[in-house]
Amino acid sequence: MTFAKRFVALGDSFTEGVGDYDPTLPNGVRGWADRVAEQLMLADSGWGYANLAIRGKKITQVLDEQVDAAVALKPTMVTLYAGGNDILRPRVDIDALMAGYEAGVARLAATGADVVLFTGFDSVASAVFGKTRGRTAIYNEWVREIADLHGAKIVDYWRMREFRDWRYWDADRLHMSTAGHTLMAKKVLELLQAEDVIDLPALPDLAVLSRRAAMVANVRWAREYLGPWIGRRLRGTSSGDSLTPKYPQLTGLHATA
């Protein structure tokens, strides 16, 4: 099928949709990018959509494995967010990585597509991930400079204070929940000046935990999520090693609830 307009999404778990689970969909997730594509198609059936993002990918992997594929699809619009998995490593040279990132953005922009980039989230409220806040700030300055150089739009995740509410996050405290992905979809569509009929889900009451209950919850989280995550890093493996892109070719989507 030929599409007059082509939206191609690149990146890692953020764009793949981890945290917004749906076992009926490829890779078992939906996510903000799918939701944006659905709304674009609802307004204009000429849109096609491909999502090349795979969880666990680092910047170099995203650039090496996804940029050529994206260019081959002749995109009208491209979204790119990668770097979170690099920032969380014990050691990382952000400056060196972002030189490669700039080259990838240049290739995408050269297609004539509208390019949409993301700043990293401000993890100030996280006792664990907050330690990487400085790295994210450096990453963000590079993203802003690269966007200026290539005329890209920016979804400024860093400045979205709503996401400091933990009800927008999955139980793993690393990925957005369904509510978070839905809100992000609306933010992206707002940047694109595109109409949407997305209803934000009602948030549950904010739980107030005693000190002991909070400690128990933290221990459970460390056992169920942090420990396995560290284990994969030590083994040099990724949760996305056995996965392929959700939508490697342009397709049409239908909006669901």
Automatic annotation (TrEMBL):
The keyword Hydrolase applies. InterPro entries: GDSL_Rv0518-like, SGNH_hydro, SGNH_hydro_sf. It comes from Arthrobacter sulfonylureivorans. The keyword Protein biosynthesis does not apply. Transmembrane segments: none annotated. This is SGNH/GDSL hydrolase family protein. Residues 9-182 form the SGNH hydrolase-type esterase domain. One of its GO terms (molecular function) is hydrolase activity. CDD domains: SGNH_hydrolase_like_1. Pfam families: Lipase_GDSL_2 (PF13472). Keywords: Hydrolase.
